[in-house]
Structure formats: structure tokens, C-alpha cells
Amino acid sequence: MTQDRNTTDPNDRRDFLKKASAALTILPLAAARAEGAAAMPRQDGVAKHFQPEEFWRERMEPPDDGQKLGWFVDTRRCFGCHACEVSCKAENDVPLGKFIRQTFYKDVGEYPRVARMFLPMACQHCEDAPCIKACPCGALKKGAGGTVVVDYNTCCGHATCVEVCPYGAIYMDPVAKQAVKCHNCYHRTEQGMEPACVPTCPSEALYFGDVSDPESKISQAMREAETADGPLSQLRPEKNTRPQMWFAGPAPVEAEPDIPREGESYHPEAYNIHNWKQTS
What is the CATH code of the structural domain delimited by 5-64+128-180? Predict the structure, then answer.
């Protein structure tokens, strides 16, 4: 797997954060670019944030590398340890109070028949990614295998991507004022390793790989889950983004109302004890 490391390597972002902390003069420049983009004409609804198609069409096309990378989350196995979040934070220098991935939980049933369901969430790496369509500076694009990545040499901090993501999977870095999201740990996968969260999961609930390869580990796990429990599900398919994440188990249906939507991001309040049991 190959990729332009000059524009998407997370180490570039780490260097940027160090420079930004020492010399905040870069922030007015980003603000000026964002202000200029805000003056663009808008339409109604989420589509009001979309740029002209000729501006994003090329960035929506992934490299011709013969792969279609995706995720399979077996919520039947997840027991909510949050190890995937911890490894993600450590791997990607995610600051306190911010999340690239988050595990949502939902209490269901009535005593004495009760259960807690868990739903690990992250960027869905949509085939028809609204964040790419909305980015006014062209920083979001498709990388290897269809991975949606951010070019930190280009991101102007406009935050329009946050406004259009139907899964709340993007946050704005509080120092760099730039968009941050899951990038499939491409700095690991291009070296033949899995994303940091996958080998960390003690229950083997997370699978990542080439879903176009019927012999890949993820494809085999998905077939086994379908044979055992029926068709897999996806989150908010009505958004027509064609997400590249599939789920087994009932957790997506139960926890879906609590998943952030357009204009929102993963937040520590998801772990507030007062939210453990929600009543309708």
C-alpha cells in the first residue's frame, strides 16, 4: 500500500501541532481562508454545504490499488472495555475530551431481564463521503483502499466537514484548528499492520481489511456472522453515503439514537453516569 506521505502522514500533523503551539500566527491565516470560504453561496439542507462537483469529483475517487478497505464490528462480542479508544488515543495523540473513535452503550430490558449493549463507532469511510463534498479547501480526499483522509497541509479549519458528517465522526483539533478523524491508521497499514484498535480488542470484535477479497479475514468473519445471525446491518443507510462499516448483533438498532449526527462530534458526556439508562 502506498500513499503520499508528504500530505497525509500523521507525523506531519504532530509536527504541525508543535509549531502551532509555539507560533500561533498560523491561526489567523487559517481563519482568513475559512472566512473566505464562508462567503460562498449556499442552498437549503445538508447539500447547502457541498462544493461544486468539479471541485471534489477527483478527490472522491480512490487510487486504483485493487482494494476496498472496510470494517466489520461484531457487537455480539464487544463487552465495552474501551481498549480500542485507548489504543487509538495513544496511537494518534488524541487530546483529552476528544475522540477519533468511541464506544456507545445502551441499557435495554427491565429488571430482572436486563442487558447492556455496546457499539464501537468511528468514521465509516463512506464511498459517497459528504465530508469530501463539503470541504471548501479540498483537504479531504480518498486514500488507499477508499480510506477518507485529511491533508493537513491544506485543511483550513472551516469545520464544514463536521456539519455534514451523519455519524459525528470528525472533531476540530483545539490547537491546530483542523479537522481530525479516523484514517484507518494508514501509517500502520502501509507497513502491513492492522489499525491500532484491531489487535488491541481483547474480544476480537473489530475486523479491518479488504472486503472485496472473499478470502480476507474480514470477509470470512462477515460470512460467518451472517450464517449465524442473518444479514449484517449498517448505520443510517438512509443517508445514502454507502458506509464501509458493517455490524453484527442488535446494538446498532438499540444505540443508534445516541450516536452523534450532523454538526456533532463524539463527546465525554456519552460516559456520564446519568446517561447510562435512558428512558423513552
Answer: 3.30.70.20
CB 267 within 8 A of CB 175: no
Per-residue pLDDT tens over the stretch 135-148: 999 999 999 999 99
CATH topology of domain 70-124+186-275: Alpha-Beta Plaits (3.30.70)
In tens, the pLDDT along 8-67 reads 454 565 554 445 444 333 333 334 334 444 433 434 578 999 999 999 999 999 999 999
The ranges assigned to domains in the chain are 5-64+128-180, 70-124+186-275
**Full-model pTM:** 0.82
Q: Which residues contact 247 (CB under 8 A, 6 or more apart)?
A: 72, 73, 74, 75, 119, 232, 233, 234, 235
Domains 5-64+128-180 and 70-124+186-275 share a fold: yes
Sign of the Cα pseudo-torsion (273, 275, 276, 280, in order): positive
